[in-house]
Specification:
470 residues; alpha/beta; OB fold (Dihydrolipoamide Acetyltransferase, E2P); five-stranded mixed barrel; 19 strands; 21% strand; globular; binds S-adenosyl-L-homocysteine; binds iron/sulfur cluster; binds FE3-S4 cluster
C-alpha cells in the first residue's frame, strides 16, 4: 500500500469557508490524502481564503511568504509540496496570485472544488492551474450538475449548505462578486444530507448560506420552498433535535420562518440578523434596503412568536460619511434591542465595490474610537445575557469531552458553552442543566438528573464564545 499523502488546510472567513474546507478534505480523501495539523510535513497545503476585509486578504500573501520557506525545505529533502489557494481571494484575485506568488501551484475558486483532483494532477506534472469560472448554464439553460455539497459527519453538530451566493449587493461587500448569484439547493438533496448525517450521529444541523433566509429551493411538490418550510420538514428527521440557520437578511424574513420558530421546538431561539448600522442615512448608502424601524419590526415579529429568542448582529463602523449622529443612532439601536452578542468591524474599502468610490471617508482615529465604544456596549450586553442564565435550568446538547478531565461540554439553545462533570455517555443527548456560575463566556452547571451528575466544578479554563470568524 502506498503511504497516505498529508494535507494541511487553513481556513479564514465565514462558516461557508469552514464548510468548504471540510468538503475539500472529503473530496481529497479518496485520493489518499489524510489531514495533518503540521505545515512542515504536508505534501499539500491549502489556504482557504477570505476577501471580506483588507486585513483578511493581506494574510494570504504573508502566509504564502512563509509557505515558500516550507516548500523549499521540503524540496531539499526530495519531497514535493504543492500549494493551493482556494476561497474568495482566489476567486477575486486569481490571476494576480499566479503572477505575484510563484510558490502557488493551483488557484481554485469556491465553485470549483470538485475539480481539485484534476487540478492537482496538472500541478504534479509540473504545470500551474487556475480555475475561477462561475458555472455556466448549459445549452438548455440548466445549471451543470451541482457540485457535491454533502460532508461526512464530524461529531454532534454539522453545517449543511442550503444556499450559496448573494444578490443583495450591499455597497461595501465583495460576497456577490466572489460567490456569485444566489442559488438554492433542492429540498430532496438537503433531506438526504441531513438523514445521512443523523444516521452517523449528528444531532444538530446549522443550515448555512450567505443569505440563508432567501432560500427558495425546489420542493418535492414541484414548488419552491421557503426556509421555514424546510426547517419544519427537517425537524421530522429521526435523530435531529436542534436546527439553526445563518446568516439571515432582515429583508427576507418571511412569515413561514417566524411560524417555524413558534411551532417547531427544534428550531433554536437564536437568530443572527445583521443590521450593520442604526442610521437610515447610512443604511441607504449601504444599499441595505431597510430602515432601522423595519429592522425593529422584524425583531418584534420574531419576539411575538417566541419570547426567548435572542439576537446577534454584525456592525460596520466608519462607513464613508458616518457622522457622530449616525453612529449615535447605531448605539441607540443596540441599546434598544439588547443583543446576546455581536460582531463589529471597521469599514474596509474593497476593490470593485461601489462604496470604495465614496469620498467622505472617516479617519482611522475616529473609526478606532467608535469601534471601542460599540464593542464596550455589546460586551456589556453579552455579559448581562450570560449572567442571566445563572440559577436557571437550561437544556444543553452535549457535544464532546472538555479539556478538563471528567468534564463534558455542550451548548445551550443560545450557543453558550456549558460544562458539567459527567460521563461521556451523555454526549449526543439534550439534558437539563442548572447553571451555577459563569467564567468569561462559559457556563458551569450541574445535571439535574442525579444519577448522571457528579459534584460541581470549582474552576474551568475559559472557552471563547462561538465565532463565525468572518
Ligand atoms: N451574508 C453575510 C455576509 C458575510 S460578511 C451577512 O450578510 O452577514 C460578514 C460581515 O462582514 C458583514 O455582515 C459585515 O458586517 C462585514 N463586512 C462585510 N464587508 C465589509 C467591509 N467592506 N468592511 C467591513 N466589514 C465588512
Ligand atoms: Fe454581503 Fe451579506 Fe450584503 Fe450579501 S447581504 S451583499 S453577503 S453583507
Ligand atoms: Fe470571506 Fe468569502 Fe466568506 S469573502 S466572509 S470567505 S464568503
Amino acid at each position: 500500500m502506498t503511504e497516505p499523502r498529508k494535507l494541511h488546510i487553513k481556513s479564514y472567513g465565514c462558516q461557508m469557508n469552514v464548510y468548504d474546507a471540510q468538503r475539500m478534505v472529503d473530496t481529497l480523501a479518496p485520493e489518499g490524502f489524510v489531514e495533518t495539523s503540521r505545515v512542515d510535513d504536508a505534501d499539500l497545503v491549502i489556504l482557504n481564503t477570505c476577501h471580506i476585509r483588507e486585513k483578511a486578504s493581506e494574510k494570504v500573501y504573508s502566509e504564502l511568504g512563509r509557505l515558500r520557506v516550507a516548500k523549499d525545505a521540503a524540496a531539499l529533502t526530495g519531497r514535493q509540496m504543492n500549494i493551493v489557494v482556494a476561497g474568495c481571494v482566489a476567486q477575486a484575485e486569481g490571476n494576480e496570485i499566479i503572477r505575484r506568488a510563484p510558490v502557488v501551484d493551483v488557484v481554485v475558486g469556491p465553485q470549483s472544488y470538485h475539480h481539485l483532483p484534476q487540478l492537482l494532477a496538472q500541478a504534479k506534472a509540473g504545470g500551474r492551474a487556475l480555475e475561477t469560472e462561475f458555472p455556466i448554464l448549459d445549452k438548455f439553460g440548466f445549471l451543470p450538475p451541482p457540485k457535491p455539497a454533502a460532508i461526512r459527519a464530524r461529531g454532534i453538530s454539522s453545517f449543511v449548505t442550503v444556499q450559496e451566493g448573494c444578490d443583495k449587493f450591499c455597497t461595501f461587500c465583495v460576497v456577490p462578486y466572489t460567490r456569485g448569484s444566489e442559488v438554492s439547493r433542492p429540498v430532496a438533496k438537503i433531506i438526504d444530507d441531513v438523514k445521512r448525517l443523523a444516521d452517523n450521529g449528528v444531532r444538530e444541523i446549522t443550515l448555512i448560506g450567505q443569505n440563508v433566509n432567501g432560500y427558495h429551493g425546489d420542493g418535492p411538490d414541484g414548488r419552491p420552498w421557503a426556509l421555514g418550510t424546510l426547517l419544519t420538514r427537517l425537524a421530522e428527521i429521526p435523530g435531529i433535535v436542534r436546527l439553526r440557520y445563518s446568516t439571515s437578511h432582515p429583508r427576507d424574513v418571511e412569515d413561514t420562518l417566524i411560524e417555524a420558530h413558534r411551532d417547531v421546538p427544534a428550531v433554536m431561539p437564536y437568530v443572527h440578523l445583521p443590521v450593520q448600522s442604526g442610521s437610515d442615512r447610512i443604511l441607504g448608502l449601504m444599499n441595505r434596503k431597510h430602515t432601522a424601524k423595519d429592522y425593529l419590526e422584524v425583531i418584534e415579529r420574531f419576539r411575538g412568536a417566541r419570547q426567548d429568542i435572542a439576537f446577534t448582529s454584525d456592525f460596520i463602523v466608519g462607513f464613508p460619511g458616518e457622522s457622530e449622529q449616525d453612529f449615535a443612532a447605531t448605539l441607540a439601536l443596540v441599546t434598544q434591542i439588547g443583543y446576546a452578542s455581536a460582531y463589529s468591524f471597521k469599514y474596509s474599502p474593497r476593490p470593485g465595490t461601489p462604496a470604495a468610490d465614496l469620498r467622505e471617508t472617516v479617519s482611522a482615529t475616529v473609526m478606532d474610537e467608535r469601534l471601542v465604544r460599540l464593542q464596550q456596549l455589546i460586551d456589556n450586553q453579552q455579559s448581562a445575557f450570560n449572567a442571566a442564565m445563572i440559577g436557571s435550568t437550561v437544556d444543553v446538547l452535549f457535544e464532546r469531552a472538555a479539556r478538563n478531565p471528567g468534564q463534558i461540554v455542550g451548548r445551550t439553545p443560545w450557543l453558550q458553552p456549558a460544562h458539567v462533570m459527567a460521563s461521556d455517555a451523555i454526549i449526543g443527548q439534550v439534558l437539563p442543566v442548572t447553571m451555577t456560575s459563569l467564567e468569561r463566556y462559559s457556563l458551569l452547571g450541574n445535571l439535574t438528573k442525579p444519577s448522571l451528575s457528579t459534584p460541581s466544578i470549582a474552576a474551568l479554563p475559559s472557552v471563547p464564545s462561538h465565532t463565525t470568524g468572518a
